[in-house]
Amino acid sequence: MGTLTASLVVPSKLNPEKQSSIFIYKTRRKSNKNQSIVPVARLFGPAIFEASKLKVLFLGVDEKKHPGKLPRTYTLTHSDVTSKLTLAISQTINNSQLQGWYNRLQRDEVVAEWKKVKGKMSLHVHCHISGGHFLLDLFARLRYYIFCKELPVVLKAFVHGDENLLNNYPELQEALVWVYFHSNIQEFNKVECWGPLKEAASPSSSGGVGGKMRNTNTTSNSNWDLPQPCQESCSCCFPPMSLIPWPSDDISGINGEPIQGLQEQ
């Protein structure tokens, strides 16, 4: 889904139009002797969803089955070679998309799962901001900004790729989207509510960064409290445990209070 870390070596002659990396390096000539290199951040191109660049894989799921009854996850990755997106829709995260040293270096995947908590459906989206190696830590603030800026495109890819499911169950468009930002830096290690899916998948009309502008009423709207599953076995929560195997570290909730790690939810 684009390169979310900066290259340590900048080629002497770089054609921005041929680069699929998240960083396009433009040169600004100060004098005949000096040039400054200005990285312009982007994520798989402009923040515009292009259906022609999306490849969808259905792995063991049924579009007629409601995600409150059959597990449903999304795994979205990007190829810097083809500039295309691959979305796997399956009952568990498609780990085969996340293999290889390049993916472990970039950590630019986005994974998500549908959850029913106390009878209400919600979509839980996970992004890796930093932790794992020093490049991710170095560019944590930039990565957070880019993920926020581009997540409406990611959510649009989910909606487009799983169009038949949403047509069969249009009420899922009203489900709240919860975005988990995972980081070893406390400032970026948190959860944000981006509102209903149909709104979260639309570009911000106010010019804000992603869900930040749609997050302002989170603390005052009781319907936007982070859903907590029942502690005992029940029929109103599904699946009973998270399908996304993320390290069980503390993540700050919308009020800055720590919430349970993914493996404990």
Tally of DSSP helical segments: 5
- Which structural class should the secondary elements be placed in? alpha+beta
Biggest beta-sheet profile:
7 strands, mixed
Query: What's the Cα radius of gyration?
Result: 19 Å
Number of strand elements: 11
Task: Describe the protein in words.
This protein is α+β, with helices and mostly antiparallel strands. Helices cover 16% and strands 25% of the residues. The chain has five helices and eleven strands. The strands form three sheets. A seven-stranded mixed beta sheet has the order 3-5-4-6-7-8-9. It has a two-stranded antiparallel ribbon with strand order 1-2. A two-stranded antiparallel ribbon has the order 10-11.
Compact description:
The chain is an alpha+beta fold. The chain has helices spanning 101-106, 134-138, 140-161, 163-168, 197-200, and strands spanning 23-29, 35-41, 54-59, 73-78, 85-90, 110-117, 120-128, 176-182, 190-196, 251-252, 258-259.
